[in-house]
Amino acid sequence: MSWDQALTWSYVVGEYIIKIFAVGTVPENRRPASSSAWLLLILFLPVVGLPLFWLIGSPYVQGRRYRIQAQANHILAERSAHLPLVPEGVNPSQALTGLLRQNRQLTGMPCVDGRVRAVHDDAVSTYLAMAAAVDAATQYVSVEFYIMSWDDTTDPFFTALKNAVGRGVRVRLLMDHLGSRKYPHWNIFQKRLTLAGIEWHLMMPIKPLQGRWRRPDLRNHRKLLVVDGDVAFIGSHNLIDPHYGSETNARVGRAWHDLSLEVTGEVVASVEAVFATDWFIETGELVQARRPVQDPVDHGENALQIVPSGPGFPTEPNLRLFVSLIHMATRRVAITSPYFVPDESLLAAITTAVYRGVTVELFVGEQADQFLVGHAQRSYYRALLEAGVHIHLYPAPAVLHAKYLTVDDEVGVIGSSNMDFRSFALTYEVMLLGFGGDLVKRLQANDDLYRSVSRELTLEEWLQEPWRRRYVDNVCRLTAALM
Description:
It is a multi-pass membrane protein. The chain crosses the membrane at residues 6-26, 38-57. The chain is α/β, with parallel strands linked by helices. The protein folds into 3 domains: 3-56, no CATH class; 64-93 and 110-306, Endonuclease, Chain A; 317-480, Endonuclease Chain A (Endonuclease, Chain A, 2-Layer Sandwich). Helices cover 45% and strands 20% of the residues. The chain has helices at 3-25, 32-44, 46-56, 64-79, 94-107, 123-135, 155-166, 177-181, 186-195, 247-252, 267-283, 317-328, 344-355, 371-378, 381-387, 421-426, 439-453, 459-462, 467-480; strands spanning 111-120, 140-145, 170-176, 199-203, 219-220, 223-227, 231-235, 256-257, 260-264, 301-309, 332-336, 359-365, 390-394, 399-400, 404-407, 411-415, 427-435, 455-457. It has a 16-stranded mixed β-sheet that branches. A two-stranded parallel sheet has the order 8-14. β15 and β16 (411-415) form a beta hairpin. α6 (123-135) packs parallel to α7 (155-166) and α12 runs parallel beside α13 (344-355). The longest helix is centred in the N-terminal third of the chain and has 23 residues, at 3-25. It is globular, with a radius of gyration of 23 Å.
């Protein structure tokens, strides 16, 4: 046998060994859609697919971060063990009671009292409200956002942080490394934070020359602010101008539209527990939280529960939360998500709800800001429309970036999590569930606003889509499942 023949046989045998190995290995503890996507890539392009699978394809996340999160969950469960399942005077339905128990079992977070002080949508007014809260700080401020940029719009907030440090307030700040570094003036921004006396650290840093390496597909996507343990902000806003530092976006009127809550009461301690865990993971320092004081102004008492999720939570609490809520519905479900790429369980829950007679509305952007996710999202429209889901397209060039849902008139959820594969498993997220007060009505009022400016996509219109675009949609759907 010649060398050429030997190399050819070696390549063929090696390729089949890879394929046989992949068929029995890739599906382990993985969604069927994800397994199919990875197997297609490995079987068709083994030289590319196998190395990529070993780099980012594992469904398991172990190591230091996983261990710390597990320990934090255990500590939270122990310290809140004396608390009842729901606050006194609250009477949730049997289904909702089971969901609250599930959330607590998976995350250690109790359901406690809280008040919604305000719902913030406009970016400018949101940052001004955050700045006002910081201006009132006397002890500490905790800041954690996926994207940050010190620009003209966010200047009031960062100036408030700087002034707080000048008053002797301790300011801790966390921002995702890859999430923030791609925006203008990144190096200057870091220097300004340091000169302001702010204690800042990168989340999930990727600095191989400094021995700091993380899987690049794992990110911290949370967005939260805590002031003195008394006031917290949580939602979808990043700390950046709504045009995201792009002159082109500003010129064509393309801005990100978000929704965040300002809350007080016992729930602030839960928000702070999320920050304290992330701060310890990045710095090794324990944060001592204060017990929140009661807000003297009654804004409508809610029962609130924080639901964190991410690579440190292999049970995917946010996905289970969404699926359980939709299965609970008896009359109406309204979902707002900028990136809607559901897995099999979520898609089945939504379509099943419609078949049961539940009215399901989905609010998404008419034009997505990300090519792959946008086309993957479109690939689900036909199944949704055929089932009877009402799809409302928020008009371009705006980017609808709010992330929340309501079920009947009973419960609402809002936070940082998208309804896609990344948010279910690869990014750290945090959601807030509320019922028994005014949260649901506030979110439904925002639905009315979105509905008034959106247009409803019909099945007849969708069936006119050219096959070329549908082909791209389906290819991107497979790509979205690669995890």
